[in-house]
Amino acid sequence: MVGLKEELLKSIWHAFTALDLDHSGKVLSHNLCTVLNVPHDPVALEEHFRDDDEGPVSNQGYMPYLNKFILEKVQGNFDKVEFNRMCWTLCAKKNLSKSPLLISDEDAFKVWVIFNFLSEDKYPLIIVPEEIEYLLKKLTEAMGAGWQQEQFDHYKIALNTSREGLSAWELIDLIGSGQFSKGMDRQTVSMAINEVFNELILDVLKQGYMLKKGHKRKNWTERWFVLKPNIISYYVSEDLKDKKGDIILDGNCCVEALPDKDGKKCLFLIKCLDKSFEISASDKKKKQEWIQAIQSTVNLLRVGSPPPHKEARQKRKELRRKLLAEQEELERQMKELQTANENKQKELETVRKQLEAAAARAAEEEKKRLQTQVELQDRFSLELEREKMVRQKMEEQVAQKSSELEQYLQRVRELEEMYKQLQEALEDEKQARQDEETVRKLQARLLEEESAKRAELEKWHLQQQQTIQMTEAEKQELENQRVIKERALQVAMQQLEQLELERKEALEQYEEVKKKLETAANNTKSWKDKVAHHEGLIRLIEPGCKNPHLITNWGPAAFTEAELQQRQKSWKGKKTTSE
C-alpha cells in the first residue's frame, strides 16, 4: 500500500503543480475522488486546504487532506491508466514542449507515466542518468536496434556537469527528438514505447496470439493472451476491447508441454486448482517462451517476489542509495580529515605562539624571582622567629587540650557505662511488664473459665431443680393413682366379701337341694329295675358331680374352686403392677 501511495503521489504532484494554486486543491480533489472511486468530502477540503510556501505538495498545505481523505481510502479498485490520464490532462498543456516531436501525444503520455515509475522518490521529481540509460536500452531493444553506449556516455557526461537528472518534460523532449532512435520511423518508436509501457506500467510480462481449446465445445479458437504477474487474460483481439476470460495464477499452478494431437502442434497445458487449459502456440520457439514465462511467474508467486522489472528497479534504487551513502560517507570522512588537518595546523600555530610567549614570560619571571628572593629570605627569617613563638604557645595549648580531652573521654566512658546500666534497667522493666501482661492475661483467662464453670453449674442446678419439680409432680401423680387403686381394691374386696356371703348362701341352698335330690333318688330307685329292660327308650336323670359347686352373681355352678383361686392370683398381680 505504501508503494501504491508513492506512485499515486508522483502523478498528483505533476497535476497539482500545474494548476492555479488558489483553486488547484479543490479541482484536483474532485477529479481524484472520481477516478480513484473515493467519496468526496467538500467540507473537509475547505477545512484542511491551506496554501504553503514550502511547496505545493507538503506537510503544511494540501498533503494532510490528500493523505487523510483520499489516499488512505484508496482500495486499489480503480483504473491506473485512467488515473494517470487525468493527471496528464491537467499538467500536459502547461508543461509539454511546443516544438514538434517525433512521437504522438499518446506516446508522450506513456513516456510521462514511465518517468513517474522510474523517477526518484524526492521532489521535484527527476530521473537519474542510470534510469535514463535503462529506459533507452529497453526502447532500443524493443525497436530491434543496437545500443550506442559511447553516444550515451557523452550525453551522460554533459548531463552530469549541469544537473543531477531530467524532468518528465525533458525526458519526453529527449525521446521525441529522436537523438537515440535515428533511422527509426514514428510507428516503430511508438510500438517500442507501447511495449515498454505495457511491461513497466501494466505489468505485461508477455503477450501474443495463441489457440485455446474450449471447455464445453472442445473447439480451438485464436485468442490474444496477456500474461501478468498473477493472471493470464485472453481477448478476441489485441485491441483488448472484448475480454473472454482469465486464468488465475498462484503458487499451486504448473505448466507442462503436451505432445501433438488432433492435428494441433506446439501444445502445452496450464494446470490450476479448478481448471486446466490447453494452449497451442504458433511455433516451438513461442511455445518454449510461453512455458518459461508462465513457469517463472508461478515461481515468483510461490516465493512472494514482485515482478522482475519492479524488483530490478528496487535493486537499482538500493544500489544508488548504497553508492550515494558510500560517497557521502567518503566526503564526510574527507571533510573530517581536512577539518582535523586544519585544526592541527591551528593548534601547532597556537602552541608556537604560546611557547614564544612562555619564553618571554619565563625571562621576566626569572628577573622578578632574583629580586624577590632576597626579600623573601629576610621575610622568612622574621617569620621563622615568629613561628617558633607561635609553636611554643601551640604546644602549651595542645597540652592543655590533651588534659581536657582526657577528662572528656573519661566522662564519655562514664556516660556510656551509665547508658548500658540504663539499657539493662529498661530491659528488666520491659521484661517485668511483659511478665505482668502475661499474668494479667492468665488471670483474665482463669476468670473467664471460672465464669464459664459458674454458668455451667447454674445451668446444671436449674436443670436439677426442674428435674426435682418434675419428679415431685410424677410422685404426686403416682400417689393419686395409688389412692385411686387402693380405693378400687377396697371396692373389689367389698365385692369379694359380698361374693363370699353369696357363695355361703348358695352352699346352704345347695345342701338343701342335695338333700332333696337324695330323697328324690330314693323315691326313684325302685323304678330302675322297671325300666332296665327299657334302657334304650328312656334315660333316668342322674345327679351331677359330688364336688361342691360355687355360686356367683351369675348363678350356681358358674366356676370351680380352682378357677376362683386362679382369678384371685390375677387380681393380686394387677394390684401389684398398679402400685
Automatic annotation (TrEMBL):
What are this entry's molecular-function GO terms? Answer: DNA binding
Kinase: is it a keyword of this entry? no
Which stretches are annotated as coiled coil?
Answer: 309-530
Location(s) in or outside the cell: Cell membrane; Cell projection, Lamellipodium; Cytoplasm; Nucleus
Key words, A-Z? Cell membrane, Cell projection, Coiled coil, Cytoplasm, DNA-binding, Membrane, Nucleus, Phosphoprotein
Q: Where is the PH domain?
A: 203-299
Question: Has UniProt tagged this entry with the keyword Membrane?
Answer: yes
Which Pfam family name is an example for this entry?
EF-hand_SWAP70_N
Q: Which GO terms describe its cellular component?
A: cytoplasm; lamellipodium; nucleus; plasma membrane
Major place of localization? Answer: membrane
Query: What PANTHER family does the annotation carry?
Result: SWAP-70 RECOMBINASE, SWITCH-ASSOCIATED PROTEIN 70
Q: How does it assemble?
A: The SWAP complex consists of NPM1, NCL, PARP1 and SWAP70.
| Purpose of the protein | Phosphatidylinositol 3,4,5-trisphosphate-dependent guanine nucleotide exchange factor (GEF) which, independently of RAS, transduces signals from tyrosine kinase receptors to RAC. It also mediates signaling of membrane ruffling. Regulates the actin cytoskeleton as an effector or adapter protein in response to agonist stimulated phosphatidylinositol (3,4)-bisphosphate production and cell protrusion.
What is this protein's record name? Answer: Switch-associated protein 70
